[in-house]
Amino acid sequence: MDLMNTEQILFEKISAMIEQSRRTIYVHASGATVMLFWEIGRHINSDILENKRADYGKKIVSALSTQLKEKHGSSFAVRNLRRMMQFAEQFPNFEIVSMTSTQLCWSHFIEVLPLKTQEAKIYYLSEAAEKLASVVQLREMISRKAYERREIADTQITAGSPIPFGTFKDPYLFDVLGIKDEYLEADIEEAIIREIEKFILEFGKGFAFVERQKRMIIDVEDFKLDLLMYNRNLKRLIAVEIKREQFDASFSGQMKLYLKWLNRYERKEGENEPIGVILCAGGNHREKIELLEMDKDGILVAEYWTALPPKAEFEQKIQAILSETRERLAQRKLLLSGENDN
Prior knowledge:
The protein is an alpha/beta fold. It has helices at residues 3-51, 54-72, 78-90, 94-101, 106-112, 118-131, 135-143, 146-154, 185-194, 196-203, 250-265, 286-292, 311-341, and strands at 172-173, 207-218, 221-231, 236-243, 275-280, 299-305. A six-stranded mixed β-sheet has the order 1-6-5-4-3-2, with helices on both faces.
């Protein structure tokens, strides 16, 4: 090995060490900043609470900001101090903040502060921490309503169902696949294969592609499953059928047949029973699904959208679906409660 190559290898090694060290320092500094801001918010909240006067709170925050900015810089402007107070108030559990602060920066936490529920905030922070998502990626997750769509899918699942909560979403947003307005089921499959990484990111955690048009011979008849996937976390095969129309009750029998065949011929030792997802182009199917109790057979139905509506319309649609599903869930619990009383 000549001298020039030796020098280059040495340079690359030391350069990599420096970059790694800088990344480590940044992570530690970022985590320390988050914890500092949480502590500041907690102390200010505690001081205001002890004095129990709203006018005192306004004055103390403004006066404190002026002093801190003068000594420590613009990070301690009134607006940011109020965010720290919100942060400490919304996340009273030190452990949650401590666990996520090592992977996330202050800007990540600012993004979730306006969200309405604590569950949604923790979900998005956990997802961002697990995926090492940037602030822009976290913002996109929130804007695409990942948590709300997961909640909608979960309302199909009842006690004793083999489908774990938090596995699927409804609806799925396939705008990332670049499907045109006029399309066939085969076009969606091709788009999924072409953009498999984007599809799996949208589909959920732990999924891997296995096969397209999985052939099954049953009583000398040929059947073909649109997509066969596997989930490493669940240790299950996932059968996926794509329909270009609204849900029809006949789809249930078809998927049951596929799951029975996969369970008998494709399931490996140590794996759990396969579960199925039927993706439909239209909505208005929720009462049929509830009556059929398909989740007990390991089948979930979800809508898919090939185009994302404008932001306001999208939020309105998701909220309407969420309200309807929550109402159905409340009615179901009420009926079960009445049955148990009898």
